[in-house]
Amino acid sequence: MTSVDDPGRTAAPVDSPELRRTLGTLVTAQVFSGAGLAAGVTVGALLAEDMLGTTSLAGIPSALFTVGSAAAAITVGRISNRHGRRRGLAFGYGVGTLGSLAVVTAAALDSVPLLLVALLVYGAGTATNLQARYAGADLAAPSRRGRAVSTVLVATTFGAVVGPNLVSVMGDVAERLDIPRLAGPFLLAAAAYGTAGLVLLLRLRPDPLLLARALADAPGAAADAGVPGGDRPGAGWRVPRAVAVGASVMVITQLVMVAVMTMTPVHMKDHGHSVGATGVVIAAHIGAMYLPSPLTGVLVDRVGRRALAVAAGVTLLASGLLAAATPVGSVFGLAVALALLGLGWNLGLVSGTAIITDAVPLATRARTQGAVDLCIALAGAGGGIGSGLVVANASYGALAVAGGVIALAIVPIVAGSAAASGRSATAEPAVEAAPVVGVDLAPTAATDG
Predict the structure, then answer these.
(1) Phi and psi for 438 in degrees, rounded to 5?
(2) What is the pTM of this model?
(3) Bridge partners of 436?
(4) 218 burial class (0-12, 13-18, 19+ CB within 10 angstroms)?
(5) CA dihedral of residues 419, 422, 427, 433 (deg, nearest 10)
(6) Residues 153, 349: contact at Cβ < 8 Å?
(7) How far apart are CA 107 and CA 97, in angstroms?
């Protein structure tokens, strides 16, 4: 088993025009895609409950668009690995646009089968929104990867916070078009995802992944060992171990976040809260998912990947306990609990992404990242399906507490990796990336087709 090669050879200069242009383009696209992402989160469960006629199945939309996200993660990852990030990300947002329009059509026709298919397709936008963070890290030096990932993530905040607060406005638009009110936010999603895809297709040049490969092949490429302390690849990390740890952190945080987030709108509706109040809580949640990203990125780069991963588990536990203890009439209490839920997810995503990007060589980077995001999406699907069953048979409070307890599994996973790293002091050059949860990650040729 081999450890990773020094990742610094793939980095552009810290303030290179290429890196600045890449981050600027990604930020613009993420502002739009954040609004599309937030639309389904806010009303997806309510639309399903209305069309299916039961609360126990209200978690199905989240499950379906996370299953769709899983399929899209692999597809976008493979396209990116072969043809670059520009084509892969633009393709994903294009599919998400079609899914959004299909959801609107299903609601207008009151067709449950079409709704189920449409939600699967809509999930491509979610997967693409997440995979964009990897593009931000392609040209960044190891000591700045956390900050590069965070720059892309924080851009999502602007659209994601505005999106839920446009629920009522888009509902009015839907009614004027003689379609169900709850389908309105998906009109916003279609426009947002479509715009994001066009921005990337037209502006993401040079392609960051393909340029990183060219830099890695250039004579005299410089190395950068700036990752903090024991978190640095080569300081005890092994490729399969690092991929497993990074993936586990992100899988657990996604499972817990999706489960609790999915049932919060249903919980609020059952206790007499308006759609507008639900939008405020979800906006606080999504804002906390992305807004702390600049600080998270700095901490990941300076304090370490492992420390922030542990903080993610502890924060999610605090969120679950607060959500369970909050009186049903308190919008403020739920907003704080959901904000902590978003913050815990953010800490896990940024730290896990940095671990994965540090560990995987360029030949298989996009493909491996797609496989990891497949696992993340499947975890979200499980959380979405299970959340409705737990609430129907127990309570929302029970769901929240269970999520917090599950999140604590991150602590022994990270502690175990630290102990194993202490026993592995000798580093060897990496020759290939490791499989993740049985997914084939063999290298494929990268071309600029």
Answers:
(1) 75, 5
(2) 0.74
(3) 439
(4) exposed
(5) 10
(6) yes
(7) 16
Question: Each residue's pLDDT tens digit in the chain (449 positions)?
Answer: 434 333 444 455 555 788 889 999 999 999 898 888 776 666 777 787 778 776 666 667 767 777 788 889 899 999 999 999 999 999 999 999 999 999 999 999 988 889 889 988 998 998 898 899 899 889 888 888 888 888 888 887 777 767 777 777 888 888 899 988 888 889 989 999 999 999 999 999 999 999 988 888 766 555 443 444 444 444 444 557 889 999 999 999 999 999 999 889 888 988 888 878 888 898 889 889 888 989 999 999 999 999 999 999 999 999 999 999 999 889 999 999 999 999 999 999 999 999 998 888 888 888 899 999 889 888 887 888 888 889 989 999 999 999 999 999 999 999 887 766 655 544 444 433 333 333 443 333 444 44
| Distance (Å) of CA 370 to CA 71, 72, 132, 256 | 9, 9, 11, 21
Q: In the 8-state DSSP scheme, what is residue 429?
A: -
Taken in order of first residue, the domains within the chain and their CATH numbers are: 7-208+225-422 (1.20.1250.20)
- Residue 288 to residue 46: CA distance in whole angstroms: 22
One DSSP character per residue, 59-70 reads: THHHHHHHHHHH
